[in-house]
Amino acid sequence: MLQPVRGTKDLIGTEATLYRKVVDTAYAVALRYNFQEIQTPLFEFSQVFQRTLGETSDVVSKEMYTFEDRGGESLTLRPEGTAPVVRAIISNGLTQSLPLKLFYSGAMFRYERPQKGRQRQFHQIGAELIGPKTPLADAEMIALGYQVLKTLNLHTDVILNLNTLGDVESRTAYRAALVNYLQQYKDALSKDSQDRLERNPLRILDSKDENDQKIIENAPLFQDYLNDESKAYFNQVQAYLNALNIPYIHNQKLVRGLDYYCHTAFEFVTTSLGAQGTVLAGGRYDGLMKQMGGPDASGIGWGAGIERLCLMLQEQDTVIKTANLITIVPTSEAEESTAFQVAQTLRAAGLHIDIGYSGNMSKRLKKASQNNSIAAIIIGADEIASKAAQVKFLNENRQENISLSQLADFLNTNLS
């Protein structure tokens, strides 16, 4: 029997409904912040990610699904959403239209060990604000993410971790201090961290190796190497969040795992999902567009795992309110054509209509109840002759005869 590929999952029933709730809720909130939707291809030229995520990142070195197509081009299934969005802005000549506020949703791909909240094909919602280089933009993006979580009623289950990575001058000073510290423990570091020590030591702060983490505990902190400009920038971001009463903690160990981040970094973290606790995360990436061949434009964005948000909704036993369903029940095959026409008319009027396809009237009514229909519309020979229908309320002991011309208004008034 054919099975899904390891690390992939079919979304059916409640899981699919929760997925749609997350996407639709996030999109509705993003529209209120004047974000426009963007959808990029599922695969890109590999350089889109190799040049931007960093050759030493786990994503590039271990997790990307990269293949050569029949034309000899190296292509990669997208592992994250930011680089494709920035590529799209450059490719479509939108760099003259900055600032841009863009929202996306869709599948991402990473070769990881599948576990709760982590799949090899996973899905994200995300938002990017391209153009402004101001603490206000950082605060607005964090506020957008917080509002999405709040609208989903998940904001009390997460805590915002906030940090600054400083500007280039601050990062350079910190990098030197970090390398000086880590050199003392070079032989004790994991193989991956030893490799990164020369090429990108900040990546070591992201290490999941237990011994690496013990060494990192006493490493220098970014805060001690920030210049005045970086401190002022971060202070202003915090002031804006304080003004909005968005709770956060300053986590000085927080870094983002990709090369293009600077200044503000943030993560909304929960304790309800075990090891996969980060549900929405992002930061500022001022050098990314120039790195990809575009102008030197600033940017800040975030991504959130839809599967993880759905798991949190499931743990809350979130009830998804569905529209009231009504089932058309023809009493025999002879009335099916009329029943079909009535169903189409009612659907066009905004009602949610199913059709009882087979069996006698008793079986069709039973099936309507099993489908959680609140009413059945019975159409037989007598109803067709009188241009009417019997509306049977399945949760009540009543039934009404309604003319077909008034049926849509009656149902919208009484059942919608």
TrEMBL record:
It holds the Pfam family HGTP_anticodon. L-histidine binds at E80, G81, T82, R110, Q124, E128, R256, Y260, Y261. One of its GO terms (biological process) is histidyl-tRNA aminoacylation. Its EC number is 6.1.1.21. Keywords: Aminoacyl-tRNA synthetase, ATP-binding, Cytoplasm, Ligase, Nucleotide-binding, Protein biosynthesis. It is found in: Cytoplasm. Coiled coil: none annotated. Residues 32-330 form the Aminoacyl-transfer RNA synthetases class-II family profile domain. It catalyses: tRNA(His) + L-histidine + ATP = L-histidyl-tRNA(His) + AMP + diphosphate + H(+). PROSITE patterns: AA_TRNA_LIGASE_II. Homodimer. Belongs to the class-II aminoacyl-tRNA synthetase family. HAMAP family: His_tRNA_synth. PANTHER family: HISTIDINE--TRNA LIGASE, MITOCHONDRIAL-RELATED, HISTIDYL-TRNA SYNTHETASE. NCBIfam families: hisS. This is Histidine--tRNA ligase. It comes from Candidatus Bodocaedibacter vickermanii. The gene is hisS.
